[in-house]
Amino acid sequence: MPDHPAGDSASRAAHLRAEIERHNHAYYVLDAPTIPDAEYDRLFRELLDIEAAHPELRTPDSPTLRVGGAPLPEFRQVTHAVPMLSLNNAFSAEEAEAFDRRCREGLGKEHIDYACEPKYDGLAITLRYERGVFVQGATRGDGFTGEDVTQNLRTVRNIPLRLGGKDVPTLLEVRGEVLILRRDFERLNERQRERGEKEFANPRNAAAGSLRQLDPKVTARRPLRFFAYGVADPGAVLPAPTLHSGMMERLAGWGFPVAREREVVLGAKGLLDYYERIGAARRALPYDIDGVVYKVDRLADQDTLGHVSRAPRFAIAHKFPAEEALTTVEAIDVQVGRTGAITPVARLAPVFVGGVTVTNATLHNEDEVRRKDVRVGDTVIVRRAGDVIPEVVAVVPEKRPILAPEFVMPKACPVCGSAIERPEDEAIARCSGGLFCPAQRKQALLHFASRRAMDIEGLGEKLVDQLIDNAIVKTPADLYKLGILALANLERMAEKSASNLLAAIEKSRQTTLARFIYALGIRNVGEATAKDLARHFGALDALMAAGPDSLQQVPEVGPVVAASIARFFSERHNVEVIEQLRAAGVHWPEGEPAPRATAALAGKTFVLTGTLPTLTRDAARELIEARGGKVAGSVSKKTDYVVAGTEAGSKLSKAQELGVTILDEAQLIDLLEQA
Ligand code: D41
After folding, report:
1. How many other CB atoms sit within 10 Å of the CB of residue 320?
2. Is 462 a known active-site residue?
3. Partner of 644 for a Cys bridge, out of 105, 544, 623, 648, CB 3.0 to 4.6 A?
4. Could you tell me which residues come within 8 angstroms of residue 582 by beta carbon, excluding any fewer than 6 positions away?
5. Distance 82 CA to ligand 1 centre (A)
6. Ligand 1 centroid vs 226 CA: distance in angstroms?
7. Which tens digit of pLDDT belongs to each residue from 618-639?
């Protein structure tokens, strides 16, 4: 760097600060990056260099402060010049309507415009700007006194350090919430996991922990974001705004991030429509929200309504049903799935969460229980979001009882007593009982009958339980031997439903090869693989006769899937059931196998790189795979051919280096056409 005289450096530094913050704003607030990362880094380093050479040029609005300065011994207390009020809550449509009624009565108006916004599930803070420069930031605390977290807030990338735009007030206090976006939260936890550090239970906890760090360098590495929801004293802004919604526009104009989902609506109906709309869009928002906030839009009306004790009468939070709740673990059981997979399940004291009462939550697998260290007696956070299966998010360690033994995986299947086995390199433990295990038999039968398999309507869980428990049905083939008498004796089985079920079973005799393969419940063979297998082999006998090698000729079938198919058909029991099913009249049209593997391509590995003149990459892959070739992602000594188009990069040079045969599209097509 050339050594600038101090004066030049001062103006250069000012220019750099403005430039960097302009790019920051574009990237973090507008979501529209303006320059490549490398160029940004160059500007940033230049400013760092100037500030190192001329410490007197370090200003409180310098973006270099965003990486965090020296740690603090403690946070200073800050008294809020304008107290930070709290919000009252509405938990139902009736309560939201009552809010509208109170506002109408208080103002003597028939219809009221409301400014609506999402209710961020973050931490309320206040930001103080003097002559457009960020000078102090504090937590809400008890509403009157909070903690000075200025240096941490400077590291929050979308908080403007200096305001831009028109009519910047001499003094401004902006209120809003600090939070972590969901996708950033996932990445943060991934990083914590990799480093063997504790994961955060949810974005809110992660944001709270990050904001309260005494070392701002730690905060700087956390992906905090800010969203503004108002100002402390709109009366001090000139020209005076008349509407809250207008105030929000002004904030956006000065560079503050504000919610895109803001809307002005009319009356109670408008409020409830907004609530429904945001509720439906909730999952798609980038951040967690726990409701929506309604505010009387006209600021003069806000003043008229005023507040009661510490909450305004002009605003209310309409909450969504909580997606997380606290409860206790009464037991940890294990469940057996169709393929014998053993899943630990927490039995919970009933708790209302996400709109339903939850008594069970999945713990996924043994490692997960260990990682979260869930024990019987623990108080846990359970989460049920949308239609997702309820899960245990985290344990509240302070609430652990003195006697809380660690979870141990049972050695024997709780249903059939067979040994539970867990291959060393797998996360899932399994019951080794196979179809001897009634639990697996039940799941296998349910799977066989399911809509996308044999589609036997009416064969549900309750019925399958009875059929297996009373040994009326042992294998799927037994279904086709059922008579009306056997069914009529079952509990809750009216004659009509018995004959309906028999009709559904009868109908299922006519099926397709793909459905039949899928219905068999071969481990690792889902619907798509079943279709691939049916298309490739055309006939069941051909599939049953195939060894692992020829199975791997099928597109998308790798060694693991091939091995589990071969293992399935090598078990006599399975072959017998298939024979019985065919003898019972289960049938399907059989076809010609798909284009056979050609000698030229069978077992050969291809790598595609660059843009081919006519074929898309997917099309080329399909053609190669249909003839028994494989397509790999990277070039190695095992690669047989590299197919290179224009703008082929490092893969092509690697191929040249290793002496791998290089083909262009025309040469590939020649090869494909060789018989
Ligand atoms: O999104 C929020 N969490 C939010 C919080 C919001 N959108 N608006 C808010 N408005 C207020 C008033 C009307 C009192 C200025 C708030 C909060 N308060 C608030 N946050 C935490 C305590 C109060």
Report:
1. 18
2. no
3. 648
4. none
5. 14
6. 13
7. 889 888 887 878 889 899 999 9
